[in-house]
Amino acid sequence: MRIKVINGNTFEPMTRGIDESAQAVRSPQTEIITTQPKAGPESIEGYYDEYLAIPGILEEVILSGDEIDAFVIACWGDPGVEAARELTTKPVVGIAEASMYVANMVAARWGVVTTMHRALDMIEKTIHRAGFSHRCVSIRTTGLSVIETETARQATIAALETAGRLAITEDKAEALCLGCAGMSGLDKALEERLEIPIIDAVAAAVKMAEAIVGLQKQTSKALTYQRPESKRIKGFPDYMQF
Amino acid sequence: MRIKVINGNTFEPMTRGIDESAQAVRSPQTEIITTQPKAGPESIEGYYDEYLAIPGILEEVILSGDEIDAFVIACWGDPGVEAARELTTKPVVGIAEASMYVANMVAARWGVVTTMHRALDMIEKTIHRAGFSHRCVSIRTTGLSVIETETARQATIAALETAGRLAITEDKAEALCLGCAGMSGLDKALEERLEIPIIDAVAAAVKMAEAIVGLQKQTSKALTYQRPESKRIKGFPDYMQF
Amino acid sequence: MRIKVINGNTFEPMTRGIDESAQAVRSPQTEIITTQPKAGPESIEGYYDEYLAIPGILEEVILSGDEIDAFVIACWGDPGVEAARELTTKPVVGIAEASMYVANMVAARWGVVTTMHRALDMIEKTIHRAGFSHRCVSIRTTGLSVIETETARQATIAALETAGRLAITEDKAEALCLGCAGMSGLDKALEERLEIPIIDAVAAAVKMAEAIVGLQKQTSKALTYQRPESKRIKGFPDYMQF
Amino acid sequence: MRIKVINGNTFEPMTRGIDESAQAVRSPQTEIITTQPKAGPESIEGYYDEYLAIPGILEEVILSGDEIDAFVIACWGDPGVEAARELTTKPVVGIAEASMYVANMVAARWGVVTTMHRALDMIEKTIHRAGFSHRCVSIRTTGLSVIETETARQATIAALETAGRLAITEDKAEALCLGCAGMSGLDKALEERLEIPIIDAVAAAVKMAEAIVGLQKQTSKALTYQRPESKRIKGFPDYMQF
Amino acid sequence: MRIKVINGNTFEPMTRGIDESAQAVRSPQTEIITTQPKAGPESIEGYYDEYLAIPGILEEVILSGDEIDAFVIACWGDPGVEAARELTTKPVVGIAEASMYVANMVAARWGVVTTMHRALDMIEKTIHRAGFSHRCVSIRTTGLSVIETETARQATIAALETAGRLAITEDKAEALCLGCAGMSGLDKALEERLEIPIIDAVAAAVKMAEAIVGLQKQTSKALTYQRPESKRIKGFPDYMQF
Amino acid sequence: MRIKVINGNTFEPMTRGIDESAQAVRSPQTEIITTQPKAGPESIEGYYDEYLAIPGILEEVILSGDEIDAFVIACWGDPGVEAARELTTKPVVGIAEASMYVANMVAARWGVVTTMHRALDMIEKTIHRAGFSHRCVSIRTTGLSVIETETARQATIAALETAGRLAITEDKAEALCLGCAGMSGLDKALEERLEIPIIDAVAAAVKMAEAIVGLQKQTSKALTYQRPESKRIKGFPDYMQF
Questions:
Q1: Confidence class of residue D66 from pLDDT cuts 50, 70 and 90?
Q2: pLDDT tens, C211-223?
């Protein structure tokens, strides 16, 4: 089974970190191919970043052909996931939804910790869209940028520990989703400190993708996720036309 | 006051139709500048189309400089509207939200009629996100493509009349939002036939934009809609970097 | 275009303040006629006040005849707005709904500041009814009465500034609706202090009314807002019978 | 124990019917005093009717003094119930809420049948406000006016049977609330025909009022339902000033 | 009228306390029979406890035969209430739902105070299921076990007073439900201290049961609460087979 | 990895069917141990059945000791899943939640098909509790009992095909969850007929359990799912005391 993990961001060290997280949890039968879009922002920290990232993410889906069995979109917010589902019969899993499903299965009430303060609304909307406003009891931010999160690991762990402790004591969170692909790999260190389940969202999505492939389920083409209608799309390469 | 109306689609006849709707309702003091992205799909009929359209829409916002007082994004689904709000202090109005606000002010229960059957989920999500699941009692589709909607006007009117009549009799809708920018200009013809308020979403958004400018309100830069963080964005022109 | 703005309260200085707010934002083509009911409480600060105010508000709608193009009901809570819609084909706009629509278009998360502590439940229910519980993140009260709000302007501004600052820092509100018609005219002073959009609800409603008139939309008579059924209404003047 | 049942309508035969329903279920220790407002519409069939009825309803509460132990407001929609709670420390029960509570305790899924088609929105909003959108699976209307409902009993029963049967077969309702005080007394006849619990809303409210008095609970004066603020109320009698 | 009150817990002093609360509010015509399951946990403080208690609760319903007119299940959380409704045509009332209905009728915003901190999720889910997330503004826990709550009355009152005061001042609760059957009988002492309505949930349920019996309503057998299907149930006595 | 799959029902052929479904999708490294409670109903078709089944389900968790890595509770409705989470640090997955998560990842709008008509309310509540009322657009029942579902395979497939086709055409469902453990193994036959993803809930849960074990996540013991409090539990064996 081959799973293509697409970092939504174009910061190469982050793609490597995501790959490590994905490799660490893959089943022996699974091959992980981690990539990043050719175009798009280094890091996704707001709506502008997110929307500029999506065409590149979708291009990665289109270019994969039939050799891929499932896709993971690695950015908490699940950018473009519905569009990716139109492009392929293969399952497409967003790391936000995957991490929330795992959180639901191990905790009654959970929280999300993420990077910049401005992301609060994006995180809230992602949770509301998923239907989990009654399960998520805490959203906390570190104030660190995505790049700092990726590169300043000790500061990031310290900030996440602080935020997480508040989520536990103030908001009664019983598990935490790491709300940024750049936090991949920090779950173990935080579990040691906070003693509640910490969900690495990339890892969660890899396991969800394996699960759906294992079930031999494909994306429904009944209505919403039908192949894009055939039409002219200006300014995009031929292979992105339908 | 100058309002820039950005068609989310790149089909030129549709841009002209949108412009006519906008011109028809603008106040005497308002200048309307209708445009379409340089790149993007001819028509937005699914999530893939929508996400490929957004960077071009955002580019139109960025390129405008200070001479524009408000922006309207003309595609029911309000693609990229939060990102556009990050890019400017000027108000940005989506035609979906604008038409729903107007519907709320003239009817207790309303519906949305749109183009292709596959758009049902997009329409529903747009309404749910806005908070109006308890006000919208009907979503009906004509089965016509956006291009057909724009070019085959008589067939479109007939199909909208049929869909609208079902919305009224079966679902007890008391007003209807035209759920596609390509339906601009059809409200009068449908009002004659259906005898309930029919909301031209583009027109509604122009009036909402005028209203906010008239109130001298600007997009809040307090948190969510702060200017995008400064970073490298690969594959996009310099003027789209922050 | 003539817009009749009906103060829900019968405190004359407040009606003048409302008129000033309405005049300040009207379009050149718009004539504003501000009035107050003949009967009803000086100020609306609870449910009893609100319900005693409504018949007088409705009387103002009935007495207007055809020379009015739209009505604004000026009391945050939108008292009697559905009933007013039954009485006329002209659009009727409540200042609460109007201010929330404007807030939605300029901010991702917003709050409401109002007068007395006891109004908390009324405010919450107004927001819940509108569908915006997920957008409104803060309700704060000054503890001042409506009359004090109208007459003790410096104390009111100071109290609103304090409440607003808590809404911003504690609740992460990014815009604020002034949740009382008696706060009309204070938006500019508060914007200077708080540096986020402050929505004068009366002004917002005037612009919404202009927008709907500009769209040539009328209140739907399809079902809910049909003209009241013909019947005897004891104790009310002849012109209030149907 | 004395319970004052206030018909929201001023149609005397209806007040008698309500009284019969209330008398039929009262406990031996309970005295029922059924009344109707001095002013207000004969029948409440829309928002205008409802708002003109409320001051008269509230007057009935005010005039009662201390000899009353609880109040029932007899109009499905619970007009003015929050205001009545401000006026007295005694419990105030609306017939809509009471009937829904009873329905919840005897059925998993229930419906409401009411009079005129135009009332659909009022009924829906009443249910939504109460929090029972997930329990109410059916709203059906007979198309008969309130007066016809009160005076043409056989036609009413036939129409309710037809509506009720559709609620059961189409919507899987397992109990029905009679959504108009004018339907009081019809529950037994309908139960024979439909074989599911039919809730007479007036009767339900009398028992709820008895229950709260039996518990020696009074209306909370902590915040929302504090006594109305002292102020001038123009055009209302002295005893309605606070 | 005979009401059987079934303590969900098997701690005999608690059953006596529940009986006292029930006896104290019953109508003269009502006979109260309070009992506890033969099997099950001493106290219900978590989901495991709750599910082990339910078969014993249901057995108490089955063993009652026709001499009982209504059942009350005395454990906040309403364990097994839907199953009990399948077993009998007589009304079955849970103390949680009953207390929330009473709270709604005397207060605009209310809270729940309960025993152990871990019960927070159970309480929240009970409120969410009932549809009252918008009415309940506070959930507070004393940290005391159910047995301590029953036996250490002074400590319990002190802890409830502290929790209640926070609910009032911090969360603006205007009434409180005692969220544990073991708190029965403490409402008066707390009302003296906190000066808002305190709802004894057992007492509330007894009055609700009396109300439904007084209305001659029975559990709907239309669909959900039909008698259990006939089948073999291993390991349970013959009288529990259907 | 060892996963214990606990059939909620005590009908042995059904346990075998569940085992086959679980074996068919397990990873090579996974060992499946399928079992059924010693006590409890042959089949779960209502709330009574469900609650009598739960102690036996929990006993199966308790008896497992440390050699099990995850538990699956195989009954759509997820009986006792929160209690099971209190009993073990190992992940516990309900088949209802698992199947809904999978449905969400392959379809925008999905439905559930189940057995008896009376189960409608249980199914709806399960979906509402999970937060997916906005994703589930169809609940259909075959009218067949659980035992018939297990034993009369051709009739079951025919009935499911009929129900499924209505879900697709009438309700626009794009995937279906098989809402009964007794339907395990029918997904492929139905996918051939209906051409949309059909989710075998048992299979889905096995893959979810593997996923969580693969992530090395355990049930949070922070608050809600702490080990049951130590206390006397009458009528249960010693090993079920804490």
A1: confident
A2: 999 999 999 999 9
Please state, in angstroms and as integers, the Cα–Cα distance from residue B142 to each residue in B15, B71, B128, D174, following that order. Answer: 21, 29, 21, 36
Considering only alpha carbons, which residue of chain E is nearest residue A109?
Answer: E121
pLDDT digits (tens, 9 = 90+) for C156-176: 999 999 999 999 999 999 999
Task: DSSP letter for D85, please.
Answer: H
Are E13 and E151 contacting, i.e. CB atoms less than 8 angstroms apart? yes
Phi-psi region of F214 (alpha: psi -120 to 50; beta: other; left: phi over 0): alpha
Specify the pairing of strand F92-94 against strand D176-178. unpaired
Closest Cα partner for A223 from B184, B14, F193, F111?
Answer: F111
**Percent of chain D predicted with pLDDT > 90:** 98
| pLDDT 10s digits, C35-62 | 999 999 999 999 999 999 999 999 999 9
Nearest in space to B181 (alpha carbons), one of B159, B213, B149, B156: B149
Which residues 109-128 of chain F have a CB within 8 Å of chain A? Answer: 109
Residue recorded with tokens 């809270």: E111
The residues, any chain, with a CB within 8 Å of residue F90's CB and separated by 6 or more, are F68, F69, F70, F71, F218, F219
Distance from CA of A129 to the nearest CA of E (A): 18
Instruction: Assign A19 to helix, strand or coil.
Output: helix
| Cβ-defined contact of E128 to A134 (cutoff 8 Å) | yes
pLDDT score at A66:
78
pTM of the model: 0.98
At D75-128, the pLDDT tens digits run 999 999 999 999 999 999 999 999 999 999 999 999 999 999 999 999 999 999
DSSP structural state of residue F135? T
Average pLDDT, chain C: 97
Domains, chain B: 2-95+203-240 (3.40.50.12500), 96-201 (3.40.50.12500)
**ipTM for this model:** 0.98
Mutation target to probe the F interface, by most F beta carbons within 10 A, among E51, E78, E148 is: E51
Of F120, F128, F133, the CB nearest to D172: F120
- Determine how many CB atoms are found less than 10 A away from the CB of residue F67: 9
How big is the A-C interface in CB pairs under 8 Å? 7
Residue E25's SS3 state is helix
Subunit contact E234:F40, Cβ cutoff 8 A: yes
Torsion of CA B38, B39, B42, B47, to 10 degrees: -140
